[in-house]
Write a structure and sequence with these properties.
By secondary structure, this protein is an alpha+beta fold. Helix content is about 35%, strand content about 10%. The chain starts with a strand and ends with a helix.
């Protein structure tokens, strides 16, 4: 792929920015509001398509101002890959099946008391 940069009145911008970092005029973005966030990634795609269909360019500053970490994988240090952190005594007790069942039953009862129809 190629990168395209434009300069207008001394302001530089990259053309074809990603949906997670681009600049636009407020009145242009308001044309696409409101966003329904029931399917966040679907709405991002719809925003990209709407901007394209109306003939607008997504512009990005020459230097990144946001970092998309969704596609990043941090290296795992050798020797720590299969090792689980030790559980505390409190965690081990809370994870016992009878204790967990009892606490969840109590939680359910409290919830029912507060939200029962009277």
């Amino acid at each position: 792929t190629e990168d395209y940069r434009i300069t207008y009145k001394g302001v530089k911008a990259h053309i074809g920015a990603s949906h997670w970092q681009f600049v636009a005029r407020k009145n242009v973005l308001q044309q696409f509001l409101p966003f329904s966030m029931d399917r966040p990634m679907g709405q991002v795609l719809a925003l990209d398509e709407n901007i394209n269909e109306r003939g607008y360019l997504r512009l990005m500053t020459p230097e990144p101002l946001a970092m998309n970490m969704s596609n990043s994988v941090l290296p795992v240090p050798a020797g720590s890959r299969n090792r689980r952190p030790a559980k505390s005594l409190k965690r081990r007790v809370l994870d016992l099946a009878p204790v967990r069942r009892g606490l969840l039953w109590f939680y359910d009862r409290v919830f029912s008391w507060y939200y029962a129809e009277a």
